[in-house]
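Exercise 7b. Backbone tokens:
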């Protein structure tokens, strides 16, 4: 399979065509299994594909990620506290969990406006297949990074490129292949390009897939380091 490509299909379809031990790092943001929808009066985005009752998808996805990762590599997987117990159990069936990283955003979410505290963080499971050494200086497992400006978001759970770059720099080398089976708005691809890594991704939703292609094509055409645009 060629690198620097995003495939319009299920992540499992992409993964089954990848050879064993062909990927250098996985940085991925799967559905959180919570039927994500904000409580804002006007919704910009529709519901996310596979965001309800896709536990089997996550299980198969983690198994396949383990298969395609090379030995002594790392995986970073975003999740929410709502189902962190499920994600952690499935993650540890394959990978050595090293940290649950806390990403502190610059703004809090919505949720139950009258009955709960305002959420201002998301979680990232960070683990090894074998043992992966950090390439950069060791940093705390609580990372502050602004959320993508809602006005420029092209995906409802879009992650900031600078945050993804932190993980990619720490756990891979130039020329390595980054995989993300839920590439959404394409931020993982942009982060890989900025850092002179290769990437392979998949996106099931046709609208987000088309926007990914536009975004990465723009970056290639102008040879720019893109962030949250």
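Sequence design result:
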């Amino acid at each position: 399979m060629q690198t620097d490509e995003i495939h319009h299909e299920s992540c499992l379809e992409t993964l089954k065509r990848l050879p064993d031990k062909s990927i250098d790092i996985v940085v991925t943001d799967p559905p959180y299994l919570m039927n994500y929808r904000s409580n804002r009066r006007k919704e910009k985005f529709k519901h996310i594909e596979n965001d309800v009752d896709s536990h089997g998808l996550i299980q198969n996805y983690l198994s396949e990620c383990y298969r395609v990762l090379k030995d002594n590599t790392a995986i970073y997987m975003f999740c929410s506290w709502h189902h962190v117990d499920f994600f952690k159990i499935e993650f540890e069936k394959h990978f050595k969990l090293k940290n649950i990283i806390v990403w502190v955003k610059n703004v809090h979410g919505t949720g139950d406006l009258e009955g709960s505290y305002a959420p201002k963080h998301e979680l990232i499971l960070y683990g090894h297949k074998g043992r992966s050494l950090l390439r950069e200086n060791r940093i705390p497992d609580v990372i502050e990074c602004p959320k993508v400006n809602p006005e420029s978001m092209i995906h409802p759970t879009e992650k900031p490129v600078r945050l993804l770059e932190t993980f990619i720099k720490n756990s891979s080398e130039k020329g390595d292949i980054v995989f993300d089976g839920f590439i959404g708005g394409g931020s993982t691809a942009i982060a890989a390009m900025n850092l002179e890594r290769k990437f392979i991704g998949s996106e099931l939703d046709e609208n987000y897939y088309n926007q990914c292609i536009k975004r990465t094509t723009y970056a290639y055409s102008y040879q720019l380091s893109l962030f949250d645009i």
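Instructor comment: Residues 36-43 have pLDDT under 50 and may be disordered. The first strand starts at residue 5 and ends at 7.
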